[in-house]
Amino acid sequence: MNHNGIWNDDPLKFAFKVIPPFWKTNWFKILLVAIIITILYLFIKFRLRRLEKARELLQQKVLKRTQALYAKNEELVVEQERTKKILEDLKNRDKDITDSLNYAKRIQEAIMPPDDVVQSILPKSFVYFNSLVIGVLKSLGVTV
Fold this sequence. Notes:
Layout: H1 26-111, H2 115-121, H3 130-139
């Protein structure tokens, strides 16, 4: 019925198609999935590249520190060898001084009579042997 109250037996027909909004179309959904996959791919690729750079930087630091440790180790080995040589020299010097002192003592004992003989002849006396030992030490460069 129209606004005049007349009925139309053959109504006018219109054919039209309702198009859904673009966000409800299949092509938009496919495009959205493709964009999400691309973003994930790029994010993972970016993250991997950043991790690779960090790994390379860490390797360079490790290499630099390893080289520093090897250099320090070489210095320590040289210092250890030098210390061993000094210690060996000191042992030899100590042996030379001890041998010299023992030799001086034997000479003193050979020249002087035994202490009990001196005490029997001169009961209130003593023999002081220090001057020969001091001479030997001074000839070896030892300060007394």
